[in-house]
Amino acid sequence: MEFTSLIAGVVLLLLLLAAGAKGWLTSRQWDEVTPGGDDEGATEGCPEEFLSRIFLRGDWEFVRKLGAGGIERLFQQERKRVALIWVRQTSAMVKRVMRAHTQAARASANLEFSTEIRILGNFVTLMSVCGILATAIQLGGPLWLNGLAHFAHRLLQQLAKLQESMQAGVLARSESGGNT
Fold it and tell me: Which residues contact residue 141 at a Cβ distance below 8 angstroms, ignoring those fewer than 6 apart?
């Protein structure tokens, strides 16, 4: 019985990792241009209210009550498309924050191991969540993923704040060192 449980756990873990990897690859390959223009220049995520609208079921319930199959399908397609764009933008922002952090870390003479581990953990978690979200959205749509999307949003904000505070510290040390 214990061996069977172990095998089932390993298989489940491998399936979860495969789904996350597939979602991450899907979010990287999504090459449609976003409505707001180039997301490479974006420095902030979408407002939390907008995020809630993408992933909540209220609009879906309204459309479903209309009883028009064509509108329901169109709504599902468009909501899925918008959700995938959000995942792609979030993933791109995570990568930008980590690039900026890497540059700041290279300029820093006194890195704190625990802070760096925490930042790395947040990065890995965020990229995994983005992959899982992209896969889940592709498979079933965004209507059940509100909690996970908000988790990713909060983690991204934490990662950006950690990176900004480190970068501010590096700049302050370099300015004070240059004046001496």
Answer: 76, 79, 80, 83
pTM for the whole thing? 0.65
CA distance 20 to 18: 5
DSSP string covering 51-107, please? HHHHH-SHHHHHHHHHT-HHHHHHHHHHHHHHHHHHHHHHHHHHHHHHHHHHHHHHH
The SS3 call for residue 111 is: coil
- Yes or no: say if 39 and 89 are a contact pair by the CB < 8 Å rule: yes
Give the residues across from 34 on adjacent strands. 37
The stretches in the chain having pLDDT less than 50 are 27, 30-43, 180
157 CB-near residues (< 8 Å, 6+ apart): 45
d(CA 33, CA 172): 38
Q: Which two tokens stand for residue 43?
A: 């420095």
- The string of pLDDT tens digits covering residues 150-169 is 888 888 888 878 777 766 66
